[in-house]
DNA sequence: CTGAAAGCGCTTACAG
DNA sequence: CTGAAAGCGCTTACAG
């Protein structure tokens, strides 16, 4: 029943060209007359032709696939990161093989040198601590590896300056009176995950406050799992420590969401008794009036994909690094009220 | 530098057989003399030969790959499910293409009919509500589809009897004096996720209590996100409703973990003031002394993979269904103390 | 049980 | 700019 898919031969025949020409059209080879190219393209459209990826891989001698290893927390973050990666890879007719880290066991399997993860043309690794799990911090493969949202001296990387983000948070929140608090994310799969990310943000925050002549006491940092409910528990904790107002750097939008929920439950007004700054800049923060440090996540993903593609094409230089910075987006949750002069310090 | 990988031709030459024979050995074809087979196998080992999967796919005319669509919550559950699936598929020399649902946007993309998810030989879908997102609940593909941890009249499925699990929970907890409580998981991506799972478990629990002449008041059910911190908030909520002891059906081990944490913080002893029953039977429940309804997750995954492989091999019957049941594992968190006679009712 | 051959659907020099 | 041909590394009837 299932009629055979059209092949490059049918296309060539109907377009009255050789199969080589069809292949060139497929691969955007420059030396095809626009006229020929259009003829071929229109036949493909008529036929509903789509090339057989497996044949391409055999003939081309590569997989035209990139492995992406990534944690399965912070799904909104990784979803956006993948958008950026896919954007670039699809232009190159590359596919993605996803290796989500569902558990330490699976991660270990991904990192074994016979793993499928290494059977592709290159690796994109989105997990800070991951390199540290490996013997001398190197992946057991000759294929190119690029880190994204992470850094290592051994590989190309596109990373976010989380420390700077923390300092920016401090610079913004330091304008307000009252004490300072922070939520530091701390995933279960500790070493493997965004662990250092949370630490760097809080470290930057602390340093920024110090520069502003303010301070972040040790016990004003709440270590939380990565979930909105963790944010709720954090606010409960802060309320046991001190009376309002609270100036809170949440370290992630999702944690901030929980803080907002709990604030409402406790009758604390955001922007007044609870000043709150998230991190990520997810779309929904706008409607919630949540101030946040917006990360150019998609751009970071795209940059990493480009670095990897260049390696796949044969670039052999020393590791390169691309740094990204967050942008402060101030909204109602840190709007200075009238009772709170901007010049406070 | 990278020396070419050995091919089937080298193996054939060194083993002094035709390439057809090597191929037969690779595919466990029965008609190969054991002697020949061993000779070929040993040459492969010497050479470090591994077949080129792409060539196989071109020649064989299929992808030898199965798509697995799955949510990215409850990572321990899905990790175990994948173990079961991989077990079966690797025996068949099939690979898995993973499509983790990081966001509604990505899910929608997976379900578009030109999606990569449909370019494989079959689909394994581990998401209850997913079928309801689709036009007349059917996936836009001719390829076989099997649901796992989910049910639909349109497709083969391997599913857990969550309602029964809830009733078993009730039968176990009903032996204790005191009031009853339940935590119902409720993911953000509501319709898409394990939503119905949580509902079914609680519904079964309620019915089971009713059969035992006990009851579960509406407001004794706490709707929680899927995280340990949600379990902590749940216990806080229960404590505002009533004094100890609490008989809590947590609906998932991870939620139960949070209850244990909060109980400790509040000075409530598990098994006495807080009787607690999880769901899943994850390995760590043993060391925590957590009673739980153990799910044969790996077996369910394996069963689904088998159903799919049969469809891929051409089976054309009406949809088949394989039901799985949890097993009660009673530990310290529901151990009747001396002050609590087993015969209470 | 096994070999030689055809074929899977592409890419890529090589000529023109 | 384009075609014809060789080749990628397998599977699978077809003979024997």
Report the β-strand fraction of chain A as a percent range.
15-25%
Strand pairing plus helix content of chain A: what structural class?
Answer: alpha/beta
What is the terminal-to-terminal distance of chain A?
77 Å
Q: Largest contact between protein chains?
A: A-B, 34 and 34 residues
The dominant shape of chain A is: elongated
CATH topology of the largest domain in chain A: Rossmann fold
Chain oligomer state:
homodimer
Which second-level CATH architecture of the largest domain in chain A applies? 3-Layer(aba) Sandwich
Identify the strand order in the major beta sheet of chain A. 2-1-3-4-5-11
Q: Give unreliable regions of chain A as ranges.
A: 339-345
Beta strand count of chain A: 12
Q: What does the radius of gyration of chain A come to? A: 25 Å
Major beta sheet summary of chain A: 6 strands, parallel
Order of helices and strands of chain A: HHHHEHEHEEEHEHEHEHEHEHEE
Number of domains of chain A: 2
Mean pLDDT of chain A, rounded to whole units?
A: 91
* CATH homology group of the largest domain in chain A: Response regulator
The helix count of chain A comes to 12
Give the fraction of residues assigned to helices of chain A: 40-55%
CATH class of the largest domain in chain A reads Alpha Beta
